[in-house]
Fold:
Amino acid sequence: MSPEKNSFFSSSSSSETAAVAKSNPTVPELPPPKKPKRNMYALACSFLASMTSILLGYDIGVMSGAIIYIVKDIHMNHVQKEVIMGILNLYSLIGSAAAGRTSDWIGRRYTIVLAGAIFFLGALLMGFATNYAFLMIGRFVAGIGVGYALMIAPVYTAEVAPAASRGFLSSFPEVFINFGILLGYVSNYGFSKLPQNLGWRFMLGVGAIPSIAIAIGVLAMPESPRWLVMQGRLGEAKRVLQRTSDSPEEAKVRLADIKEAAGIPADCDDDVVAVTKQHHGEGVWRELLLRPTLSVRHILMCAVGIHFFQQASGIDSVVLYSPTIFEKAGVKKDNDKLLATVAVGFVKTTFILVATFFLDKVGRRPLLLSSVAGMIVSLTALGFALTAVDRSGDEKLVWAVALCITAVLAYVALFSIGMGPITWVYSSEIFPLRLRAQGCSMGVAVNRVTSGVVSMTFLSLTNGITTGGAFFLYASVAVVAWVFFFALLPETQGKTLEEMEALFGTFFRWRSSLAALDEKKKRDVEMI
Structure:
């Protein structure tokens, strides 16, 4: 019997006992069943794996302030500036595209180590850069490491986490992205006191330090049980599941589900199974793109859509260019702009921590829809405030400056409550086991392309339609996102990873049923 069924019967029996106790005072009323404690081993594994996301967060945060000093030391025009800011997102495509195949080949754990090693090299190259071309090479190497980290952290976490706390644990990558952003902002403020030609080099080069700690810490983690099963190493997978599940019964159920998904007989109890063809990702792209089932098509649309809208609604423009936005609002001193960006990082990190405790209680859909609705209001208010400042000329509008800062803080808070963490949680849990690594890498690729386009066009966009107009555009994209999520994304709270496929495909089945009905009506009319 599944854990869900066990919990259902236990809750039913306890409610019946309570009813009997009320009707008969001699029968003692039993306390309600206790919720199982959070699995600390699974939490530690997820924590270590998700630390790789600090790499992306740190780079985003540190570049927003470092660019102020880089343009003074290495002269560049505004196009070169926006390219150097956003190009890492496009470079990360190489890492995320390779990570799916790499993680199926060498395993999830060693892929995380590889991500840390590549970013370490990239951070050193950026710190020692002497000109624009040298800096671009460092961005290229660091981008590949970021791509690996972005893809593998949510996949590993989703595969290790028990169903009851998967939302909480799978939100860790977004938590560490936000923590990395905050570290980058703090680094900007701390190293801004150094001479101009040294400050920005320390800001970028210090990013090598966390990558070393991550690579060492990950070696203490177990391999993903799902990857072990796909390689025929059932004994190792069983031991990992026993430590990462909330009960022995759940460990057995999870193992049985993974074996079924991997095509291994349920009665096979050998520690090592001779797999005739180990799973390294062969044939996955054909099943994902060329001949997808209705469910897989729906899953792919949801994963790609949620990653696209996360970035197209403007989050990287706000985070990367927050000093520029505050300058447009009327904050002129470099020190004040950096302090304001630290406030942005602090609010963003605080609210992502709040969100982690609601993912498995409230559910994905309510949080996501509420978050996007709030983002629409915040972006509209920000656009209105910046437009008012832009049209005021030399006159300083205190209310508009206050509204601008408030709108930015509200936007990052609302993003962190829903859209930020749910994107990574949702896309990492909905793909079937056989498609998960490559499916997630596609989602990350779309995420990085969209982020790169948004961040590399922000300055040009503001020159063309004003800064306020740019945020009105992002608000309109968020409106489309809300409609998309409401129509297509089912709730996944409490479902095991092996149950996900059954939730999807209804949209296309509904359309197919309508088409079949229309065809039948046409035939009936022709017969008449």
